[in-house]
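tool_call: predict_structure(chain=1)
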Amino acid sequence: MTEGRRRIAYVLPIYDEEGNIPLLYERLRSATDGLRDRYDLEFVFVDDGSRDRSLELLRGLRAQDPRVSVYALARNYGHQIAVTAGLDVADADAVIVMDSDLQDPPEVSLELIARWEDGVDVAYAQRRTRDDGLFKRTTAHGFYWLLSRLSNVDIPRDTGDFRLMDRRVVDELRRHPERNRFIRGLVASIGFRQEAVLFDRDARHAGETGYPLRKMLKLAGDGIFGFSTAPLKLISRVGGAMAALAFLWTIYLVVARLVNPESVIEGWTYLAAGMFLLGGIQMLMLGVVGSYLGRIYVEVQRRPLYAFSVADAGPPRGA
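tool_result:
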């Protein structure tokens, strides 16, 4: 590293990406060649417990390029924790978070850097188009629509974690230690000057997505429950509405009994149906409350977010 020059670190979470790593590195190296005269660069790869040859390939890159740092988590902690680990170890004036499946084009990072040079603290890549299936596009659109209606924070639509953050923003982000992490929401809540850079998102180059439906639903839950109290408020509103309906129904039954007793059906059918309906609604609402209580329980434990099994960084050994 050159004394006095500013540093930019790329944080790249890796999970079973052996089919993408060689091309990812080549495109990243090619895209950043023009920056070497102005900045010191570091490529921070965080292996999130990959089951294939990803870690082996990353160590090979480390051996041939001193700018590459490789950190291997002790197990698969998930994408958001892997990104957090990379942010914690990256020592730079600006940090760029980018997925490793080549859906986030490395060339777009140059536009993010240009915005940073103009004084922007967070330059986030916003998808203009996305080469995904109909189901993925539909669910993503629905999620961002719902999040915009419920969230207490203005989280930009059609954005992932592909963004550049100034050192000050990264330091602030480190002060948010919650385990159920939704990083794009945390960054939006921090503030500072943030601007979008539009780009066309490519299709995954190789391998399978690390976000199947189960993980997508969990991430959506982290975004909604982590940045909105609307589900809790919904409980009281639904409860109030049900109480009002029950009151009106009681008045109707009393009036019907007094005015026209023959119209009232004897038996327990309506009573049993009403009890089951109210019981189901109560259980549903208790489930929402339980989601929040579960998060509180996890947060107060204050366990470490991750553990490294390998931390190969700095100048190559023996150099």
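agent: The chain has a mean pLDDT of 79. Proceeding to next step.
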